Amino acid sequence: MLRQVSLQSLRGLAVAAALAVASTVSSAQNAADRPQRGDAFLIYRETRVALPGGKMRLLAAGTWGRAVAIEGPTVVGIVNGAKLSVPLANVACGRSGVARLSAEIRDRPTDWSLYLYRADLRRKLKDYDAALEDVAAIPEDASEYPSRMVYLGVIKRDQENWQGAVDDLSAALELATAARDRRAMAYIHLYRGPAYYRLDKLDAAIDDIDEAIKLGYDDAEVHLWRGKLLVQKGQTDLAFEAFKKAKELDPYDKEVRAALVQLYERLNLYGLATDELNELAKDDTNEPAVLWTQARIHYKSKRYDEALAVAEKLLEIEPDHVGARVCQARIYFAKGDKRSLERIALRLMALKLDNGGDFAQRGFCLDACGLTVDAMKDFDQAIALGYRDSSVHTCRAQIHARRSEWEKVVAEATAAIKLDARNKDAYYARGVGLLWLKKTDEGVADFDRAIRIEPNFVRALVARALTFANTN
What we know:
alpha+beta, Serine Threonine Protein Phosphatase 5, Tetratricopeptide repeat, globular
C-alpha cells in the first residue's frame, strides 16, 4: 500500500493544504526560515492542530499550507478553507527549508520521507536535477518507493515533459488503484489532468479533475484547475462556480483571484474585474502581474490614457515587458499614431525572446504595424513553444483573410474556437471564410453564434444582413 505520510507530501502542487504542528520554536529562529504572506509552506512533522471550536485534528507530515501571517512562534495559514496556527518549528519553506531538511536527513539518513519532502521543496524552487536526485535515492525496499513514480511524474510535468508526466502518473495510478488508496488516486488524477490538457486532451483532463473531486480531493487547487478547463470548454457559468469555490477554500490564493479577473475580462465585466484586481493588488500595487492586468483592463475599457500610464509604470519596473509594449502599440494604433507604433515595433524586434507568450504578444504588435510576415513567424514560434491562446489563431485567421487564403482562415478560426468556445471574432472570421468557400449556410450559422455571444456585434450583424440580402 502506498505510504500515507509520503503521499501527503504530494500536496506540494496545491497552494493550500493542511497544517500540522507539535512543538514550539526558539525565539532565536532565523527570520529566513519564516514564510511570508502568501507563501506555500511544508509541514514535515506529524502534528495536532486546534480547529475553530476547540476540536483537534491530527495532520500528517508532508502536508502544505499557505501563510497568512506570522504570530510569534507560529505561522497562521489556510488549510482547506480553514485558518489555523502552526508552530514554525515544524515548517519548511524555500531554500532555508531545503537546508533544514538537509540537516534532518544528516541525522536520519534512512527516513526516506524526508527525501520526498526535500524533493518537493526543490521542485518548487525549479531545482529539478536536485529534486530528481532526492527521488532516485529512495531504495526499492522502502515503503516510500511506490510514491517515487508519482514524484517523477510531477517533476516531469513541471519541466513541461507532458507525455512523460502522463506515463509516470498513469503507472503510479495503477499501483494506487491496486492498493485501493483513494487519497493517492485523487492526488494522481489532479496532477495528471493538467498534463493531459497540455497534450490537447481537454476531455481527459476534465475527467481527471472530476475524478479527483469524486475521490475526496477538495481544496483550492483542484477547483482552480476545474475552472480553467471549463473556461476552455466555453462553460463560463460552471467555471465561475469552480473559481468561487476555490476562493472560498483559499481566499489568499492570488492565482485564484487572477483566474477570476481573467474570466471577468473574457465576459467583458470590467467593473467586476477591477474590483477583484483591487483585492489582488492590496499587498503589492507594484507587482508586475497586477500592473499588466490593470493596463489590459483599461485598454479593453477604452480608457487609453489610464492604460498608457499603467503600462509606463510597469515598464519602469520591467523595461523589456513585452505585454506592456504591445499594450502601448495597440493604443497608438487605435489613436492613429503611426510613428509611435513603429518605434515600439522596432524596439520589440530587437528583443531576444525565449517564451511563447512573449512571441505571441510581439506578433500582435507586428501585425498592427502591417509587418504580417514577421508577425506570422512570431506566432509560429509561439505555437512551437507550446503557447496555447485562442487570440493567436484568431489573428492568424485575420492575416490569411487579408491574403484571401480562405481555407486557411477556416482552419485557424476553428483552432481558435477549439481553445475558446466564446471567441466571437473567431466565429466571425470563420463565417467570412465559409462564405467565400460558398458554404453560405455554415457561414451564417457562425455569424449567428458570434451574435449570441455578443448581441451588439456590429460586423457579424452587418455580414449576416448582407448575406441574406444577396441570397434573396
